[in-house]
Amino acid sequence: MMLEEILEKIKPREEERERVQSIIEDLREIAERVIEKSGEEAEVKFVGSIAKDTYLSGDHDIDMFLAFPLSTPLEILKSKGLKIAKSIGERLENHEISYAEHPYVRGTYRGYQVDIVPCYNVRHWKEVRTAVDRSILHTEWVIENLRGRNDEVRLLKRFLKGIGAYGSEIYIRGFSGYLAEILIIKFGSFMKVLEKSDFILRQKIIDPGNWLKKEPEMAMKTIKREVDEDKPLIVIDPVDPRRNVASNLSWERYGLFYFKSQEFLRNPSKEFFFPSAKRGNYLKAIRERKTHLVTLLFKPPDLVDDILLPQIEKSAKGIKKQLELKGFRVLGYDYGRNFIMFEVDRIERENVEIKKGPLYYTNHGQRFYEKNEKVWIEGKDLWSEKNVNGFIVDVLEEIISKGAFSSGKNVRDVIASSNILIDFVPKELRDHAFLFLSREKFRVK
After folding, report:
1. What are the backbone angles phi and psi of residue 44, rounded to the nearest 5°?
2. For residues 392 and 384, what is the distance between their CA atoms, to the nearest angstrom?
3. What pLDDT does 103 receive?
4. Residue 303 — very low, low, confident or very high, per pLDDT cuts 50/70/90?
């Protein structure tokens, strides 16, 4: 009964379906006229949750692909595909060029976001040349295998959204819509997927396309790569044995799904699907925890998230390591497009740094003696002492100005010019700071 009530909220009503269908027909007509005028051969294909009828009410971005013949050289596809996409975009309410593996156009039509993406018109995984080509095969596979379980997908998607585990984007690293569809096809229903949440983890490998029998060498190569990279789940793409559908899924997001599924089975509630907003006072959290929040604010370079965020994450880890080497205990870190946050045990350290050196009668000992100003002997060992900056802001400025940390090459300079804030963040980061300090982001109990 409860699931029926939830479906009533998330399933598109007839008038919404009619509106979406009307928009698709309009877009197809616009695109086909532009393609015909260009003299190019390209087929208009709609992919994604709209085409599969697994979209949630009010959540229906439209993915329109311009599928070029396989005989089209890649550079021609990129240039002419973008030209046609821009021409289509000019007939929408607004548009802009976005970038993934190759440029595409993102626009708005009748209030709906529309992505116009050039690709190859593939029929088989061996024909795939760009990452987006598979979307056509994904859509066809889901339509063929879903067999009326569309609402089960909707329930799983909404559940994943509610627990904070939906979206394969680099800044989320959760379950993609396609992965949710595969799980429903594999296990049969929303409830069965939840019941098998621990089984999925034990099984580790899901092979809905039966590639381990059809293409064992290629499938095993994929499995070995993903195991070596310590991925929580391996779902061999049913349309391409070279790919793990769950490759972007993080251990944290899988953990949320793992624990929340069990919790829901024990005590079902609508709260899992429509949670209350997690808000609180980050300043109160700092006072209660008796720790400190250190935030680096910077202006990010103009890069897409898939390139930018891994570099910021690498930088955050690098700075964390250096802070710990300097004597500060880092209790956690978080990051976004324009910030890095650290929770630290203190913001002042001793102004004196004492360092143990090598045996005094060795070559290393001689170099240690020459390098340091104040040196003494304890037993066979040399020790040194020097005055250092004690305030964490001074320490951080020294670390980042010297570039003395592992960092992404495109963000090192902007991080070096960061503003450093102590126990304070601007208004737009207050909720984020609270979620970070309270550990609500990945909290399971």
Report:
1. -85, 125
2. 22
3. 84
4. confident
Go through the chain and tell me how many residues it has: 445
Outline where 165-210 has alpha helix (H): 177-187, 190-195, 197-203
Cα distances (angstroms) measured from residue 254 to each of 13, 173, 242, 313: 31, 9, 22, 19
CA atoms of 14 and 119, how far apart (whole Å): 32
Neighbouring residues of 224: CB distance < 8 A, sequence distance ≥ 6: none
**DSSP-derived pairing of the beta strands 234-235 and 292-297:** unpaired
- Kindly state the DSSP code that residue 124 receives in the 8-state scheme: S
CA 236 – CA 197 distance, rounded (Å): 17
Tell me which residue has tokens 């007509």.
29
More confident residue, 100 or 89: 89
Average the pLDDT over 59-73 and give the result.
93
Rounded to a whole number of angstroms, the CA Rg of the chain reads 27
The mean pLDDT value for 301-317 works out to 91
Judge whether 317 and 333 are in contact, CB under 8 Å.
yes
The residues, any chain, with a CB within 8 Å of residue 438's CB and separated by 6 or more, are 278, 280, 285
Instruction: Give pLDDT, residue 101.
Output: 67
> Which residues lie below 8 Å from residue 152, measured CB to CB, with a gap of 6+?
184, 188, 189, 190
Is pLDDT at 257 greater than 90 in this prediction?
A: yes
CB 198 within 8 A of CB 258: yes
The pTM is what? Answer: 0.89
Bridge partners of residue 108, in order along the sequence: 94, 113
Q: Are strands 234-235 and 205-206 parallel, antiparallel or unpaired?
A: parallel
Q: What is the pLDDT of residue 100?
A: 65
